[in-house]
Amino acid sequence: MDAKDRQIIRALQANGRMTNQDLAEAVNLSPSPCLRRLRNLETSGAITGYGAEVDAKAYGLPVTVFVRIKLERHNEEDVQRFERAVMRIEEVLECHILTGATDYQLRVVVSDLEAYEHFVRARIHPIGGISSIDTTFVYGTVKKTAVFPAL
């Protein structure tokens, strides 16, 4: 991947609905080479898909929660059981494996505190093998971007 490919990616991250003509202008290419590069980025898997960025509050899920989870044991069976279960939980938008005191961090969206309590009791507790759950509620966002930094 070269600098021009990165420019294409950053432009699309900022506005995924731009036309090839607009993209070509934004990265200073003519439309045909721009489209060829775009198709190569898609084929290679560098661009994995396209989607709409939606306001969670407007959608009806105004509460964002970061949930840090520590497992009781780190054997293959318990880790796979936890990860498979998390993959099936719709409220979990992201799940990251961490170093340090906790094993996973989840980004969860829910409609209210009662929905979060239900999420923990009905979705997380039944997984089993969890040593601790540490919850942090988001009450504001300073920065949120999907655009990678320039290299």
Automatic annotation (TrEMBL):
Transmembrane segments: none annotated. Pfam families: AsnC_trans_reg (PF01037), HTH_24 (PF13412). Residues 1-62 form the HTH asnC-type domain. CDD domains: HTH_ARSR. InterPro entries: ArsR-like_HTH, AsnC-type_HTH_dom, Dimeric_a/b-barrel, Tscrpt_reg_AsnC-like, Tscrpt_reg_AsnC/Lrp_C, Tscrpt_reg_HTH_AsnC-type_CS, WH-like_DNA-bd_sf, WH_DNA-bd_sf. Keywords: DNA-binding, Transcription, Transcription regulation. It comes from the Bacteria. This is Transcriptional regulator, AsnC family. It comes from Shimia sagamensis.
